Each structure stands twice: as C-alpha cells, then as structure tokens.
Amino acid sequence: MSQPKKFVLLGATGSIGENTLRVLRKHPDKLKLIGISAKKQVNKLAEIAHEFSVPFVCLESPPSSEISFAKGTELLVGQEGIEALASLSEAEVVVVAVVGAAGLLPTLAAVKAGKKIVLANKEALVVGGELVTEAATRYGATIIPADSEHNAVFQCIQGQSGNSLDSIVLTASGGPFRDLPIEDFKKVTLEQALNHPNWSMGKKITIDSATMANKGLELIEARWLFDLPPEKLEVAIHPPSLVHAIVRFVDGCCLAQLSPPSMTFALQNALLYPQRAPGVEPSLDFSQPLDLSFSPPCYEKFPCLRFAKDALEQGGTAPLVFNAANEIAVEAFLRNRIGFLQISDIIGHSLNTSSNKPTGSIAELLDLDGQVRQLATSRIEQLA
Ligand SMILES: NC(=O)c1ccc[n+]([C@@H]2O[C@H](COP(=O)([O-])OP(=O)(O)OC[C@H]3O[C@@H](n4cnc5c(N)ncnc54)[C@H](OP(=O)(O)O)[C@@H]3O)[C@@H](O)[C@H]2O)c1
Hints:
The chain is α/β, with parallel strands linked by helices. The protein is 44% helix and 15% strand. It folds into three domains: 5-145, Rossmann fold, CATH 3.40.50; 148-261 and 294-310, no CATH class; 315-384, Rna Polymerase Sigma Factor, Chain: A (Orthogonal Bundle).
C-alpha cells in the first residue's frame, strides 16, 4: 500500500480549510496533514493541530495568550513563517486556502519549492498570474485548481491533446440578487448579500458572489491556469450550481463536469489526483428532476463583472488594480462603512485613476497593490 500524501494546509481555519479537513477525515489512509496556518483564530488552529497531530503550525503573529499546542509542535510566525510552511521539505502537496492577495507570496514560495499546489485562492493568480505560472514552469511545480469551476475544467481536459481546447464556459449561480430588479440594488443590505442561495463560504467570497466580482476573478484565474485569451473565456448563469464549467473543443463538442454545490468534490479531486475514491458527500440524484438551464449574465446589474472582464482584456496590472480595490471595498462593506453599490464605484474609480502598466517584479506588484489600496481607502473616506 502506498504512503499517505503529506500536505500542508494554508488557511486551515477558513471555509476551504474546513472542507479540506472533511476530505482528510474521509481518507486518513491517503492523506497526512503536516502543517497548518491561520491568521488570527488561534484556538481553532490549536484544535486542528490536536485532532490531526500536526507538527508545524503558523500564525500571523505570536499568540498573546498561553495556547496549548501538543508537545513537539513547532510554531512558525508571520510572513517568513507561512512561506517556510509553504516550502516545507517534507510536504508533497501545499493547499493554498488563504483569502485575498495575501495568498500570492505563499503560493510563490510553494512554486519555487517545486510543490504540487492545490490552489483554492484565486487572488494569487489574479494579481501575479504571469509570475506564478512562469515560476511554476521554471521550478517544476504543478498547480491543480481547487476552485470548483477551474477544477471542473481540469477534470474535463484530462486526456485531451493541448491544441484541442477551444474555449471555456464558467458557470455562475448569479448569487442572491440574480433576479432582483436593477432599481432595488440600492436597498441591498449586508445580511442579504451574505445569504448565498447555494454555497456556504467565507464572508469575502460570499460578497464577491453577490456582486459577481467572484466570477470576474475566476475569468482572470482561468486565463492563467489554462492559457486562453480573454475572448475564449465565457460566463453562463446556471442557478442551481450543478454544472461547474463547460469545456468546448475545436470540433464543437462540449464536456461538462457536474457535482452537488459543495467544495468537498473539487478539493478531494485536486488532493487525490490522479486517484479517485469515494466522496465525502452523496453524488447527484438523477431520479429527481434537475435544472440544467443556462443564460447569459446581466452586466448592467453586475458592473463588477464588467470591470473584471475589461481588466482581463487590458491585461498588465489592471487585474491587480481590480482585485486590490475590490478587497478594500468588500472589507468596508462588511464593516457597514459603504453600501452595496459603492463596491463597484470604488473599483471603477480605482481602475480609472490607475494607469495600466506591464506586470513587473514581485516587489513592483506589491508596491502597486499597496498604492491601490490607499487610493480605494481615500475613495471610501470621500463616500462615507
Ligand atoms: N469558500 C469557498 O467555498 C471557496 C470556493 C472557491 C474558492 N475559494 C477561494 O479560497 C480562498 C479562501 O476562501 P474561504 O472562503 O475559505 O476564506 P475564509 O473562510 O475567510 O478563510 C480564510 C483563511 O485564510 C486565513 N487568512 C485570512 N487572511 C490571511 C492573511 N492575510 N494571511 C494569512 N492567512 C490569512 C484565515 O485565518 P483566520 O481564520 O485566522 O482569519 C482563514 O484560515 C479565497 O481565495 C476564495 O476566493 C473559496
């Protein structure tokens, strides 16, 4: 019998982290968790470390209270700590489930260590797609997408020759406001935006789904994962989230991947690839009627999706600007500092005010990211 794959889980205390642990509980003979990280949730991190006897843990800063990790557990801290964890020599696989552009440096560290990366974090590729994919080629790292749409594409293209792919359709549920009349968007509350009809996720991505910025981030992520130009990347609204993506081949045939709307399916596929094993949850039930309808998105109602598409078409640093402004705007919305419609205002303002440049070094990207965050913060102060 083969040895379990040793893996590190960055962002273990979040929604993707929890779903990854569900896969691990189902397959303890196939997977072994050897490193975990969180930003602030010390107690939850300690519980995970105890449950799975994890030897390496990492936090953003040293815990203020006395916290009991098991004897022999090594505590790493800060940016250096998370990058050390991402490149841990004992780990074969690194799951990146950190939220936001904070995922970029650990992803790059794992890439440079030649790891197999199970990538849930989408912002890393939006901000630094060119650098990350070039480095992956140079250092022999493999990126296996865990975002459900991209994992669906990944599954559909297995065994197909490289030049047979024509285009990709990413499906979107349309979020809680899919059918809301445009004139009612100004009345949207935080509570309504956090109430996603299909998926249970972290707060940031839940708001991104309500604005459809999430689908925009995914288009940009797909551009780097599958090396396709913007015009070959489409979005279709598919309310029940059963079909996660459709791949169109040059001969006109389309393949789709279907599974219930839970992240355990994509995460298990990415973690165990190329093996398949019984899933954590039941599959689809075709003895019941299933809705397999698709329709085009409404860009008028969801300007964030339009901004992301424009940024994708412009290339260069435009996707970084889109992402940084979105992160700041969503955080402000989550704190009740701005209204729902102001999220797109802040993104549009940041894109209009920043000149687009070719992507440079990692230091230049981080510097620009900081500048856009300041710009977006000033806009919030003007609006508040
Ligand atoms: N949730 C989903 O179903 C889903 C689906 C597809 C893709 N994704 C993508 O997966 C990523 C994670 O999403 P999520 O919903 O799991 O987020 P989440 O629930 O907010 O969890 C985020 C995790 O990252 C940690 N973290 C937050 N900020 C960090 C920072 N600056 N540095 C290091 N660690 C940090 C958090 O630690 P604390 O708990 O200590 O704050 C937590 O462990 C996102 O990029 C999202 O777009 C999520």
